[in-house]
Design goal:
two-stranded antiparallel ribbon; elongated; alpha+beta; 2 helices; single chain
Length: about 90
């Protein structure tokens, strides 16, 4: 069942159930649930493949267009972190 396939009355019932649950919730999250959710977030990993070429003795990296990485020559940037890869 998705939002596109659910009947309007079923959708309203689901929303009302959520509203009722939220109204009764005291805001506490048990420690085991919190750390379980946190561990799940930490486990979510995404693999990004970069292409590396050596042009004129210099490393040239390329990232896929959909990548959140900014790649320029031998530099990789992501969320304020910059990696510089030097060849020896």
């Amino acid at each position: 069942m998705t939002a596109n396939t659910i009947a309007p009355d079923e959708f309203e019932a689901v929303i009302q159930t959520h509203i009722n649950w939220a109204a009764d919730w005291d805001g506490n999250l048990p420690v085991d649930e919190f750390f379980g959710l946190w561990a799940g977030l930490l486990e979510e990993r995404q693999t990004l493949a970069l292409t590396a070429r050596i042009v004129g003795g210099e490393l040239k990296l390329t990232a896929p267009p959909e990548s959140p990485l900014v790649v320029m020559d031998n530099r990789i940037r992501l969320n304020g972190l910059e990696l510089i890869i030097n060849l020896q």
